[in-house]
Each structure stands twice: as structure tokens, then as C-alpha cells.
Amino acid sequence: MDLSIKQLYDLIFSPIVTPYNLLDNLQLPNYEYINYSKTQNGVIATIGCTIEEDFFADFDYYFDYNNNLQKVIMRSDEGEELVFERMIETVKIKKRVLENLSDPIREPAV
Predict the structure, then answer these.
(1) Does residue 39 form part of some domain?
(2) Long-range CB pairs of 20-29, under 8 A, 24+ apart, other chains included
(3) What residues are paired with 38 via a beta bridge?
(4) C-alpha triplet 84, 16, 94: angle, nearest 5°
(5) 40 is in which domain, residue-wise?
(6) Tens-place pLDDT, residues 12-39
């Protein structure tokens, strides 16, 4: 329960990762490039990297103008996949916390 509350707090109040943090990834051998662009809603960082041998993908990181990560989409030859979306994750964790609060049988955490 405490872990869920911390995760919820981080999703609401933490940027999780910022556009500046992503620059460090370029030092890793499997990262090829990072491009930034500005949109009406914030910043998109596109990172190209090899995930597994012979599997290359682009990751689009969407940030709001407060540098809070909102979502991550992976694009490859196999299509697109939503990797992370802040709102979806927040709803999941809120639900888990509320379920734990309403479970009368649950023992308190030690």
C-alpha cells in the first residue's frame, strides 16, 4: 500500500524523466540519436535506438511545458505501441489504492 501511494505521488508530482535526462542516453552504445521538437502542448523527444540485436525502434517522449513526461510511444517496423501514459497509470494506481483501503480483511503493513 505504501509503495502504491508513493507511486501515485510520483505520478502526480514528479516529472519522472525530463527532456534533459534523456541526453545522457546518447552515451550508451545502442542509442543513435535524439531529436527535440516543440508542439502546442510541450516538447517531443524522439530517440532512435537498438533494443535487441537487429531490432531498431524510435521512442517518442511527450512532455508538457513543465517538463513532465506525459506519454511514451514506441515505433518500429512492427507498428506503434503505447509504452507509458501518465493518466492511465495514475488511474490504475488510484484504483489499487482505493481497493486496498476498502478491503477490511487486509492486514496492516509491517
Answers:
(1) yes
(2) 20/67, 22/47, 22/61, 25/49
(3) 43
(4) 65
(5) 2-100
(6) 899 999 999 999 999 999 999 999 999 9
